[in-house]
Amino acid sequence: MTVRAYVLIQTEVGKAAAVASQIGALEGIVSADDVTGPYDVVVRVEAASMDELGRLVVGQVQAIDGITKTTTMPVVNL
């Protein structure tokens, strides 16, 4: 079963493009887009499990310089 999620990211001023570019190069990232509004980057992620999703977000995404906050929203199938 594949776990899909969206990660909403706030960055330091002027860092959105660099953050999106670095995240887009990570394995498991489907897309990383600069956006306007309360968040600066929106990321689509796919992982094999919730644990793998957590490791990707906490271990790799949050380690990228310029990120100030992430909000992870797993997709549910109702």
Describe the structure.
The protein is an alpha+beta fold and 78 residues long. The two termini are 15 Å apart. The chain has helices at residues 16-24, 50-61; strands at residues 3-11, 29-34, 41-47, 67-74. It is globular and about 35 Å long. A four-stranded antiparallel beta sheet has the order 2-3-1-4.
Question: In a few lines, what is going on in this structure?
Answer:
27% of the residues lie in helices and 38% in strands.
Overview features:
single chain, 78 residues, alpha+beta, four-stranded antiparallel beta sheet, 2 helices, globular
Strand content: 35-45%
The overall average pLDDT, rounded, is 96
Q: Work out the helicity level.
A: 25-40%
Envelope shape: globular
- What is the helix tally? 2
Q: What string gives the helices and strands in order?
A: EHEEHE
Distance between the termini: 15 Å
Low-confidence stretches: none
Strand order of the largest sheet: 2-3-1-4
Please outline the major beta sheet.
4 strands, antiparallel
